[in-house]
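One such shown below:

_____
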Amino acid sequence: MMPLPYDRVLRGDLVLPDGILRDGYVAVRGESIAAIGEGELPPARAVEDHSGRFILPGLVDGHMHTGSAIGWPGIEGATMSAAAGGVTTVCDMPYDVPRAVTDAAIFREKVEAVNALSHVDVALYGTIRKEGGVDAIAGLAEAGASAFKLSTYEYDAVRFPRIDHPTMTAAFREIAKTGLMVAVHNEDQELVERLTAEARASGRVDPIMHARGFEIAAAFRGMGGRASGEACIQYLCMTEEDLVRLKGFGKCNPPFRTAAEVERMWAALIDGRIAYVSTDHAPWPRARKLGDDIFACGAGLTGMQSFAPLMATLLLERGLPLTLMARYCAENTARHHGLAPRKGAIRLGADADFAVLEEGEFTFDEASIQDREDARWSPYHGRPMKVRVAATYLRGTRIWDGTTVSARPGQGRFLPRQHRESVPL
């Protein structure tokens, strides 16, 4: 009896967890990966030949803000740019307009918005209110939160509150019971406010006024704690000179550092001291990034559509293998957010999520960003890229063909955390 054909077979250079399989194939049945091999292609209803191109797992972005600028409607445009950037799963921060995701009821409302608007799959962070929110932690975990986020700096008392140290300690205790990780935004409120006031008083509002965290995390691990550090991609390539050049379009927190700090970031990544690489995508309206007063500009960068091209380019420029991209931009992220083994790697039984990369000489153009018009800006506009995203597949369906997003709003789904086991560090 002849075996039933697969729904789709993709041929290309597969970037697998343990290496690159040149001229291999991956076969899809339904929404899952059903076979991985090389040689003669198995029978399939559709064959897509990406020979000479790299086929990576769809990227998993562990840090993005779709709702910080315009609220949940921002999910639609941000996930379109994700599809175009080879990103098939995003982990969205809880600091939404007009209120943060601080309890299970708000969480469920956001899940409904995700299922109606998203073009890729979405996991969600939860957080707590400034006061009296610790009791909501268990409910957020039960509702499917992939992680929690707390801040030591207050941008807004409701949307992005500062959590004082005693409350944070109580929150850590409750979050530990859930097995989920907690991320900390760790600016010092008093120092930032004092230094900002002094800069304004002196008339210095130019951009320059605006990593050692991996060593700190390592020290905690040495004492028996479970700690890790996330790296945003901009800190692997941008410096203070870029901030001066870009002005508001280069403002993010923490700000760009020195070229020497960029090299320290790469050393930490190569040494395995970084948990994963993310974008911290924050699609502020263009108007919020204009002007000469750096303190008046919104903090955050667009980075979703440039994620795969830029990360691959940075690795190729340094002579490093794309297996690092699969590990740090997909597999590790999925593991930390409890989304593995379903997400994060080309493996049997996983969702058939792929990013197909084509090598060549390209230039990133912000006008190509697949988002609302006032979010079509990028700190990487005009940057030479060594690859482009030729195709993106979500659960076996092509959602980007190199020029057009074909996914429909709602084709992406809310993805609850799959398990609560802690992640080995």
Remarks:
- The chain has a mean pLDDT of 91.
- The two ends are 47 Å apart (CA to CA).
